[in-house]
Design a protein that fits this description.
By secondary structure, this protein is an alpha+beta fold. The chain has 3 domains: 2-320, Beta-galactosidase, Chain A, domain 5 (Distorted Sandwich); 334-547, TIM Barrel (Alpha-Beta Barrel), CATH 3.20.20.70; 642-733, Golgi alpha-mannosidase II (Immunoglobulin-like, Sandwich). Strands 6, 7, 8, 9, 11, 12, 14, 15, 19 and 20 form a 10-stranded antiparallel β-sheet that branches. Strand 16 (259-265) and strand 17 form a beta hairpin.
């Protein structure tokens, strides 16, 4: 790791263990991008700026500035001076002009990694080898009085580069930020393929690849959340890239609101890759002396395919983003009563589930929606966070105590960002709902969204949750958010600041969750948004796990979990054994395949265990034991994708290795059986070639070398929807 500047002060080099990022100054004023790729020590790359190739020649300032501006590889492009590609920065001044020309002023190299006020951000780790270094480059538009700070942070133990931007108004007039992205990257097109993660409710984070073609490809969200539909992630790969080889450049956004991620292929076969807050509906008023800081964007380069990219993201988030004390702890096996009861439950029913759960080795009961106000369906009471004692005699405190007496931990569901029109809170404060005066606000799931841009609303919502948590012994909170934002407006922001709404809303969410984990540090927090609509790095800063999807069918989950695990550690994925037939698709599957797929995440149950057969109960006990046996490996190990059902439509396979490569767990899922087929060769990855590995439950011993090169031969299993766990442990070294 290291940040260097050449002797002339016009080339900047950022080195991680395996990558190099180069920037340079052209014409003494413009900061350009030179290179992002394999690690290099040589930093004399001034020629990469191509200043001698420019159509404008040496007299560009007087003759043809536009030709330069529209082809130069800017490090942080701005709008209005001849660069007609999508900018990272667009500013309007008091005169209505949208012209900004950023010129290089200076730099500073700092030890450590700055935090971002009120927002999630990566941080230095406490262990050896986790230190950080930050390069801060200063750009300025003197006429506007605008100073722009570009930050690049790196860690000793990571190949990621963390970027954020701060705009400071040092002038005397107001400035209006209409667009300010966190990262932009200009580079030559190398026949790149573009990978994104898209979907919908119950079909989240499906991997999609396409060739980069002329024009723009944009993914994003304008829903007030990162959304089911698109993930704040994109990756460019060279031709032929797979899990183990090929070049990858990827970005991921540490944010939980509206975002844009874009690639643009221009008229000279150059690519602009960018990421940040979505500019639609965004405008930030920058008063004289004020500043605005963007959320962080994470950049990862891999020369060893998508697999190395994945493990870089995983280790970064585990070591430098997730703060929870539960990060490196085995999470309790939980059962959530939602699919067992929906709204139809009382304390007697919940305690019957708890008693049965204890017998099966389940460790926590989570009470989901329906315990508060007069909520017997989804048409009322959100915001009225007081106990319905017709359901819970003695309240939450009594129920929690009884569950604890059964030997289980106790969790509870909240949806604190929402308000029902049929609620006491709405009757008292109708203006607390997001709305445009004079327009009837749009309903979603019979509910409105609270205006979290208002501090009094944030305080009330937080206290409503905290009051319950102070009153009882509660171990876990599921924080839900079940509809996107619409009819965006606030009674208090004022016309000039209404474009700040979406971002201020997210800051309100972050404030509430920060207060929650500070006041209740022993609380296990799991975020959720209609299933998996807010599965993003921003949420991971506050909670070590997020509900992955409302679709828990194991076959559907293969694709959902593959896409999620492309970026996020397995330990962050809420994954449960569901009811069968599955309530989403009606599919019949064995408990074995449901369990084996769920073992790849934070394990639990989403069904009425009081209705299980004796055989199913015996199976549940066994799978709970398996979770305890393998979870340390799944939670802490390195993840490898072996085969993809999404691609081959027949089978799926993934692998987790211990860091010392002494232990390997392979999950093989046969979705569809076929006649007249030989066994499949499953080529493992990341083993120690010189070690011998024994397959658990057998006397079979294989060298790491042969398992990786020739592969393990998995026989076809009779029937569809079959699965198998393959657990290998090192037994000796090869002579």
């Amino acid at each position: 790791m290291g940040i260097k500047v050449n002797k002339d002060g016009d080339i900047f080099q950022i080195n991680t263990e395996n990558s190099t990022y180069l920037m340079g100054i052209a014409y003494g004023k413009y900061l350009g991008h030179l290179y992002y790729g394999k690690r290099m020590e040589d930093m004399e790359g001034q020629y990469l700026l191509r200043v001698k190739e420019d159509e404008a020649g040496i007299n560009w300032q007087r003759r043809d500035k536009i030709s330069l501006m529209d082809s130069f590889y800017f490090e942080y492009p701005s709008w209005g001076v001849g660069d007609y590609r999508d900018p990272a920065l667009r500013v309007r001044d008091e005169g209505g002009f949208r012209v900004c020309e950023l010129e290089y002023e200076g730099y500073e190299i700092k030890s450590g990694k700055p935090c971002l006020e009120g927002m999630p951000a990566t941080f230095e780790g406490r262990e050896a080898g986790q230190k950080a270094q930050t390069l801060e480059i200063i750009l300025r538009d003197a006429l506007l009085g605008l100073k722009v700070l570009l930050r690049y942070s790196i860690f000793e133990d990571s190949d990621a580069i963390i970027r954020s931007v701060t705009a400071i108004n040092e002038g005397s007039q107001k400035l209006y930020l209409e667009k300010i992205l966190s990262a932009s990257l200009d580079m030559d097109n190398e026949e790149y393929q573009l990978f994104t993660l898209h979907g919908s409710w119950a079909r989240e984070r499906r991997i999609t690849g396409r060739k980069v073609s002329e024009g723009k490809h944009i993914v994003g969200s304008l829903r007030g959340e990162t959304s089911h539909q698109n993930q704040p992630f994109l990756a460019l790969t060279t031709n032929g890239t797979n899990q183990t080889s090929g070049d990858v450049i990827a970005m991921n956004f540490v944010y939980s609101g509206n975002f844009i991620a874009e690639t643009e292929l221009d008229h000279k076969d150059g690519i602009r890759m960018s990421m940040g807050i979505h500019p639609d509906g965004f405008e930030w008023v920058l008063e004289p002396g004020a500043s605005f800081t963007t959320p962080e964007a994470v950049m990862v380069y891999s020369s060893e395919g998508l697999g190395k990219m994945t493990r870089t993201f995983h280790s970064l988030y585990q070591n430098h983003l997730i703060r929870s004390k539960f990060l490196h702890q085995k999470r309790p096996i939980l059962i959530n009563n939602w699919e067992a009861t929906y709204f139809d439950f009382d304390d007697t029913k919940l305690l019957s589930i708890a008693k049965e759960a204890k017998e099966l080795g389940i460790e926590m009961l989570v009470m989901d929606d329906g315990w508060f106000g007069k909520r017997n369906n989804d048409e009322s009471s959100l915001g009225d966070w007081f106990v319905n004692e017709d359901k819970l005699r003695g309240g939450v405190a009594a129920l929690a105590e009884q569950v604890h007496e059964e030997g289980l931990r106790f969790g509870i569901w909240f949806e604190p960002e929402m308000i029902s029109p049929d609620s006491e809170l709405y009757s008292a404060h109708p203006d607390w709902a997001i709305q445009v005066p004079g327009r009837e606000p749009s309903m979603g799931r019979h509910q409105y969204v609270l205006d979290l841009t208002r501090q009094e609303v944030v305080d009330h919502a937080y206290e409503s949750v905290a009051r319950i948590l102070r009153s009882a012994s509660i171990d876990y909170v599921k924080w839900d958010m079940n509809r996107p934002l619409a009819d965006v407006g606030s009674f208090t922001l004022g016309a000039e600041h209404m474009g700040e709404f979406y971002h201020r809303y997210v800051l309100g969410v972050y404030q509430m969750q920060e207060r929650l984990i500070q006041e209740f540090p022993d609380l296990l927090l799991e975020n959720c948004s209609g299933g998996g609509a807010r599965f993003d790095p921003g949420m991971l800063y506050y909670s070590p796990q997020i509900w992955t999807s409302d679709d828990m069918d194991p076959i559907e989950r293969l694709t959902i979990q593959e896409g999620t695990a492309l970026v996020y550690p397995l330990s962050t994925m809420g994954a449960h054994i569901c009811v069968c037939p599955n309530h989403t698709v009606g599919r019949e599957t064995s408990m074995e395949i449901r369990a084996n797929v769920a073992l790849a995440g934070t394990f639990g149950y989403e069904l009425d265990i009081t209705k299980l057969t004796d055989e199913e109960k015996r199976e549940a006990k066994f799978f709970n034991q398996q979770y305890h046996k393998y979870n340390d490996l799944v939670r802490e190990g390195g993840y490898y994708r072996i085969a993809s059902y999404r691609e081959n439509q027949r089978y799926d396979c993934w692998q987790v290795n211990s860091r010392d490569r002494q232990e390997v767990l392979v999950t093989y899922v046969q979705v569809r059986n076929e006649p007249e087929q030989r066994s499949r060769r499953i080529r493992l990855q990341g083993l120690a070639p010189h070690l011998k590995y024994q397959l658990e439950g057998t006397k079979e011993i294989y060298s790491g070398e042969i398992l990786m090169n020739a592969g393990y031969q998995q026989e076809m299993m009779y029937g569809d929807y079959r699965s198998r766990l393959l657990h290998f442990t090192a037994v000796e070294s090869l002579n």
